[in-house]
Q: What sequence folds into this?
């Protein structure tokens, strides 16, 4: 299997009054045409890992890596022109919050058409038809209405689906999905996962799925990286998750309530400073 | 056994004419003293609106809400809020950013004319596991879990008998969720509180509640006991879908 993405020794740090805060520490992994999950709690550096790969770390942050390659292209210190040719077309990211990631003064339809037409020459009518198809594919019931709507006219779940449609219409090779489904209802969540799953299977897209929901990730992904305070504490095949070795992974699994019940009080997580070493 | 909270054919309608949205349509439920009752549904199903209607925060179009057999009147009396308190979903939005924890907790005491505020605030903070070290902090100096604890302390400081919990843990990390659910569980056992808990997470409701109501599009789909939920003995198709969805993703 060829790996499309290679990450070695990735570090992200932000300056603060008390010296740099290292939010991502020595993260290494490779990604083939598969579904990789990154799980962790808020502040574990999972989103910053995804952003660093796309070169979207905020300007104040410092990204260093021993190796950061996408299909043989070195991404470290890549010029803006390289990023332009990659982002959107070959790698893209579904952000967590549609409220902040959609352009508030452009209709949904225009934004998606724009994303589609950047790929190459198409007619306007074709782009429009394709956009409507894509909106339908992400289970939007009334695509014509959504096409003409502004982001503030849509609910959170609808906005998130429009955002996913926009990212998928360019058919990227690598998709980083940052909590793409946490704003959605469970049943819609599965529809969105099915779309992503289909793209991985049929088109061989690589997917990095960032989430706090360990159970969801283990049911959807092939492999899971568990992050704690910026560090990958465990890498494990999703089907072996129940046999996780690291106490943090075990703690995350055990603290979830189950429909079957059985644990009262729920186990809480005790954190250990030694996990950072 | 008489019900502490009774809701009969509740309907809530927002807007007028063409913009009319019927958020809740004919919901009835009974909650007994000391019981924990759950409402499950997707966004827009009207589950939170039911709680808000109880508090008088939503325009009730028709139907009746009774507490201890007494029909609630509009506006709610002050005594009502001593009995019934609400914890909101998002602890980042429900605490005033420029009020200290002390101010947040002393305001309800002042409104209701409680004496010995000092001792009550300290006790409330201890009860939710924060301690008096947190008393003069601002919300931005607290983590999400700590904020939600402050919100619970604020609700409990009036010693209500009924707590309305609107997705109390959905904004929190899994490990923090476990802590807050344990806290709510312990407080109920200790004080014989009655809970109405709204959540989209079937597992949370199964853990916390003896009975639950499933809602969709503002209507009741079905009422289930915890045992029925655990045995997956749901009758309605929609509840079955929710149960399947809660198991996570299954490849085709």
A:
């Amino acid at each position: 299997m060829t790996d499309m993405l290679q990450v070695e020794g990735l570090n992200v740090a932000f300056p603060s009054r008390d010296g740099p805060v290292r939010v991502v520490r020595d993260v290494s992994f490779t990604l083939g045409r598969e579904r990789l999950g990154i799980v962790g709690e808020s502040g574990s550096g999972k989103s910053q890992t995804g952003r660093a790969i796309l070169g979207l770390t905020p300007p104040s942050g410092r990204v260093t890596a021993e190796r950061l390659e996408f299909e043989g292209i070195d991404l470290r210190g890549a010029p803006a022109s390289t990023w332009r040719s990659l982002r959107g077309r070959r790698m893209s990211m579904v952000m967590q919050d549609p409220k902040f990631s959609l352009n508030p003064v452009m209709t949904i339809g225009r934004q998606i058409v724009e994303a589609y037409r950047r790929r190459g020459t198409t007619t306007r009518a074709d782009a429009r038809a394709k956009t409507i198809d894509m909106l339908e594919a992400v289970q939007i019931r009334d695509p014509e209405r959504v096409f003409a709507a502004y982001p503030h006219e849509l609910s959170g779940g609808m906005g998130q689906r429009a955002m996913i449609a926009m990212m998928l219409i360019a058919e990227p090779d690598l998709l980083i999905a940052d909590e793409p489904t946490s704003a959605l209802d469970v049943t819609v969540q599965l529809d969105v996962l099915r779309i992503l799953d289909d793209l991985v299977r049929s088109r061989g897209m690589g997917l990095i799925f960032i989430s706090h929901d360990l159970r969801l990730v283990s049911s959807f992904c092939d492999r899971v990286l568990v992050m704690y305070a910026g560090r990958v504490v465990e890498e494990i095949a999703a089907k072996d998750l129940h046999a996780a070795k690291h106490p943090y992974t075990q703690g995350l699994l055990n603290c979830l309530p189950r429909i079957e019940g059985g644990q009262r009080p729920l186990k809480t997580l005790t954190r250990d400073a030694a996990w950072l070493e | 056994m008489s019900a502490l909270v009774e809701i009969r054919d509740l309907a809530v309608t927002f807007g007028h004419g063409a913009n009319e949205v019927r958020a809740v349509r004919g919901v009835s439920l009974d909650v007994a003293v000391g019981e924990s009752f759950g409402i499950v549904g997707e966004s827009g199903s009207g589950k939170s609106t039911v709680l808000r209607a109880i508090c008088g925060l939503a325009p009730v179009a028709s139907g009746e809400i009774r507490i201890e057999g007494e029909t609630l009147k509009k506006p709610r009396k002050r005594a009502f809020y001593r009995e019934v308190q609400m914890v909101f979903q998002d602890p980042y939005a429900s605490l005033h950013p420029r009020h200290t924890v002390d101010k947040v907790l002393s305001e309800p005491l002042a409104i209701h004319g409680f004496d010995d505020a000092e001792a009550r605030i300290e006790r409330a903070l201890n009860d939710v596991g924060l301690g008096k070290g947190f008393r003069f902090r601002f919300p931005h100096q607290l983590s999400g879990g700590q904020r939600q604890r402050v919100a619970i302390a604020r609700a409990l400081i009036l010693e209500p008998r009924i707590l309305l919990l609107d997705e109390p843990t959905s904004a929190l990390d899994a490990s923090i969720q476990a802590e807050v659910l344990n806290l709510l569980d312990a407080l109920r056992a200790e004080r014989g509180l009655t809970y109405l808990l709204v959540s989209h997470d079937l597992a949370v409701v199964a853990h916390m509640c003896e009975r639950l109501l499933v809602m969709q599009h503002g209507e009741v789909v079905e009422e289930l006991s915890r045992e029925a939920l655990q045995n997956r003995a749901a009758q309605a198709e929609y509840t079955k879908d929710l149960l399947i969805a809660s198991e996570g993703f299954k490849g085709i």
Observations:
- DSSP finds ten helices and eleven strands in chain A.
